[in-house]
Write a structure and sequence with these properties.
Structural class: alpha/beta
Order of helices and strands: HEHEEHE
Number of helices: 3
Radius of gyration: 17 Å
Helix content: 25-40%
Strand content: 5-15%
Strand order of the largest sheet: 1-2-3-4
Largest sheet: 4 strands, mixed
Oligomer: single chain
Shape: globular
């Protein structure tokens, strides 16, 4: 955001759980703000799913009224298809397992950096 000259507003950061219920609560929080964001990035697809469900209950349209992007790319059967940052979950799981069983006791875990792709769904729009 800083690269685009946009400020990061502390009230636009919501810390919740990683479940559908967290997305429901996040929507309620953002809807209560006087100055609401036009787009939200959720830390996983379940949060995005809950956010969308609550927005629909409240009569808000995704993405016309507010855009939402998830993170994971595992919710392939949800409608509308969620715009998401897709990770290779199989690669991450295999690498994590391999690193855990091959790790010496007391050694800090190694970092793993993988490529991601933006999977465009129907939950975001250009402003």
């Amino acid at each position: 955001m800083a690269e685009r000259g946009l400020s990061i507003r502390e009230e636009w950061i919501y810390r919740g759980n990683y479940k559908i219920s967290g997305g429901l609560e996040a929507y309620d929080y953002f809807a209560s703000l006087k100055d609401q964001p036009t787009a939200v990035i959720a830390s996983n697809d379940r949060l995005a799913q809950g956010f969308i469900l609550r927005a629909n209950e409240c009569g808000r349209r995704i993405p016309e009224d507010i855009s939402i992007c998830g993170f994971d790319g595992f919710l392939t059967d949800f409608y509308p298809p969620i715009t998401t940052v897709k990770q290779d979950l199989k690669l991450i799981a295999e690498a994590a397992f391999s690193k855990l069983i091959g790790r010496d006791e007391g050694m800090p875990p190694e970092e793993l950096v993988t490529d991601v792709t933006l999977q465009i769904g129907k939950t975001t729009r250009a402003i």
